[in-house]
Amino acid sequence: MRTAVFLALLLLTSLIPAGFAVSRDIDREGWDLPDIVPLPTQVPLSFEGWDRDANNDRIDDMLESGCTLDSENGMIGINVHMDGPIDRVDVGRIMDRASLLGLTPHFLRVGIYTTAIYLLVSESSIDNIPRLLTSDVNFIEYRPRIVPFLDVSSRSVRSAPSTEYSPLTAGDLSVTGEGINIAVLDSGVDNAIHESLRGKFVYGVDFTGTTTIFGVDPDDKDGHGTHVGGIALGTGGSSGKYVGTAPGASLVDLKIFKSFGTILGNSDEAFEWILENHEERNIRVVQCSFGSSVTTSGKDTTAQLANRLVDDGLVVVAAAGNDGTQGMPSPASADKVITVGAINDMGTIDRDDDSLEGFSNRGPRASDGDLDAVDELKPDLTAPGRDIMAPKHNSIFEYVQMTGTSMSCPHVSGIAALMLEADPELTPLQVKEILRDTAQQTYPPSRKDISPKYNYRSGWGSVDAYGAVKRALDLKDLHIEAPAEARAGEEIGISVSGALTKTP
């Protein structure tokens, strides 16, 4: 890889490997390549053991299987993963190869935390994609379409006070998510006008255009994002009837799709933006009511970036999907993400009459080829997802019902914000473990050898906001005393004082 030398695009034809006929008819002016310099953050991803490369030829099997692929105007999305940091010459060389192979490439962007070149290429020439694979290309990945996954629910999960469960609710613990910013990756949130979302906006980015727009308050032309945002952090307006699970939390509005989904990789770009900016924007929770149109084992780019967010201290919550089949889309398939399936709260606050929804995807996730069977146990939790009432876009006072794991997911994102207000020192993996441990078990265990609670359909059970927040507060009050120093082999005494409440 060249990291220091920059050549003019007119010289790129000399870099085509042997075996490619050089054509003077390639229109490079239409590529409009920006200045691209190698970044120290660009690290190659590993696709070893991925179920979508069963023959280990470094080509996504979906590009070779002859199956129907997501396309827009005859173009499909691919990620060309290079073997090191990328410059403008590398991109031009890949574009040249793709053009010579009749792929009619359209450049989108390069990764910031990956070595991926994001392209749209002609579906009609898909058989030529493997010929892009050369010694400096680690992997060629198919990028499926990213699509959205489409009262009483906040009270049913014991987030908001209610006559049924008070004083045993998170609201009765005086925790609202205040001081916690939730990044909502969706179709935009109409926070400027709707009563339930006014005053929530902190910062926004629109990733849906040909040029990313920073510092904008994105509009919602679809309704999905406004509904999702209201479930996670809406106040419910003056009446508070349709309050979200974290009414004190604030919004970072990241628009990644319009009404029909996208194959442009905007979720990956948003994830990388969060990695760069989460400290400045005080983002603690990443809300993802979307996913790939195909299931995966968690080795794809989107899933690996989601895991990177968790490693950087962010709680990432993703919807399990609405196909009603076994398997998880991305990013729900990622090992470290909290994956949420759907239950029907039956329109009541009482949790005992809840039932699982047939449309909610079930586990286990496809194996990623390692020896850890626990990371295949998806979903992690369930939350209400049937006929959930939340803000309607392009309105001031109206609320509307929607159904799907998209509605289940933000319940848990809001509860995570409550937990982080209760104990800001909690790590993302601690949040995940507490949510699992305090969830109400709803079905018999599917893998007793691994977990006494986990079920392929319901995960560890139905999320319990009160139990999770109470546990977070208890952990914050624990006092641990240990010697400041100890020699190897020396026995030491550790004192732990405090109490953990087993919630009813």
Going by helix content, strand content and strand pairing, the class is alpha/beta
**CATH architectural name of the largest domain:** 3-Layer(aba) Sandwich
State the share of residues found in helices, binned by percent: 10-25%
Largest sheet: 9 strands, mixed
Can you count the beta strands?
19
Would you list the SSEs in sequence order as H and E? EHEEEEHEEEHEHEEHEEEEEEHHHEE
Q: List segments where confidence is low: pLDDT < 50 over at least 5 consecutive residues.
A: 1-25
CATH structural class of the largest domain:
Alpha Beta
Per CATH, what is the topology of the largest domain?
A: Rossmann fold
How far the N terminus sits from the C terminus, by CA atoms, comes to: 59 Å
- How many H/I helical runs? 8
Radius of gyration: 24 Å
In short, what is this structure?
With 504 residues, this protein is α/β, with parallel strands linked by helices. It has helices at 88-100, 153-156, 224-233, 266-277, 301-311, 405-422, 428-438, 465-477; strands at residues 75-82, 106-110, 116-122, 137-143, 146-148, 181-186, 201-206, 213-214, 250-255, 283-288, 290-292, 315-319, 338-344, 355-356, 381-384, 388-391, 399-402, 479-481, 495-497. Helix content is 18%, strand content 18%.
